[in-house]
Amino acid sequence: MVGEGRFALVKTTLLDYPGKVAASIFLPGCHLRCPYCQNPDFADPGRINAELSFNEDMEGFHRFLNHRARILGGLAISGGEALLHPKLPELISLAEEYKLPVKLDTAGLLPEILKPYLDSNRLNYVAMDLKTLPERYSELGWKGSGTKSAEILLNKTIELLAESGIDYEIRTTVVPPLVDEKILKQLEPLTLSAPRWIWQAYHQGNTLNPEWSHIKAPDEDDLRNILEIFHPVAEVFVR
Ligand code: SF4
What is the pTM for the complete model shown? Predict the structure, then answer.
């Protein structure tokens, strides 16, 4: 694989870990192919110039933590699908060594990989994407997992998170036709056990499927207007 062992590091961000000044790591490789994906080089690492996009390796990250961990409030780990990356356990161990809380982003289709991390209290926050109706995950390139449907896997992840005792959120990017007002309503029952359901506006840009790069989607104000007549516990995330 291009850039094997390398990943992207954002040294400081206020956006990726709720309430914390964090460093953010993006791990390449994903089992989905969301057409609107705005991390296309991370979903499909074969596309990129590794030197430009993957700016860090484990050794460099260790050095970075040595110098900067004391001013950080946490480490956010995203992807791609971070749970699929072989370096994830090592990265979490490093964060533990420097006493940094870890937030993990996941698409929610890998409950069996997530569970041991939750059971051993190695994660402090999880953000799980709920991308559209479970029966439409084939439109995101989901090819299935044995006999388990996307619905079973998403429900299992939601159940594990609810039982875990850690803080978490469910997150939905509102991008038609995968998610519109009607679909938000249909997704609502899946989110009721979560402390937070975050709606993200879709911003036009570089997308995995170029045909989606200029798709029209509700902006943050539109989402707030939908929210007013809709769901008392959802929140709109503002970039
Ligand atoms: S948006 Fe979809 S394809 Fe892109 S990294 Fe996330 S889960 Fe993978």
Answer: 0.93
As a whole number, mean pLDDT of residues 36-48 equals 81
CA–CA separation, 77 and 66 (whole Å): 18
Query: Domain range spanning residue 119?
Result: 6-237
Mean pLDDT (the chain, rounded): 91
In a domain, 218, yes or no: yes
Looking at the CA of residue 129, tell me the nearest atom of ligand 1.
Answer: 7
Inside any domain, residue 108: yes
- Look up the CATH number of the domain holding residue 189: 3.20.20.70
- CA of 174 from ligand 1 middle (Å) equals 14
Question: Is 152 inside a domain boundary?
Answer: yes
- Cα of 61 vs centre of ligand 1, distance in Å, is 24
* Choice from 26, 48, 81 to test ligand 1 binding pocket (greatest atom count within 8 A of CB): 81
Within-domain flag for 1 = no
Atom 2 in ligand 1: residue holding the nearest Cα: 34
**Confidence at residue 5, expressed as pLDDT on a 0 to 100 scale:** 80
Q: What is the pLDDT of residues 153-173, one digit of tens each?
A: 999 999 999 999 999 999 999
Q: How many domains does the chain have?
A: 1
- Separation between Cα atoms, residue 11 and residue 72, nearest integer Å: 9
122 SS3 class: coil
Asked if 108 and 129 touch (Cβ cutoff 8 Å), the reply is: yes
Among the residues of the chain, which ranges form H helices? 40-43, 50-53, 58-68, 88-97, 111-119, 150-164, 181-191, 220-228
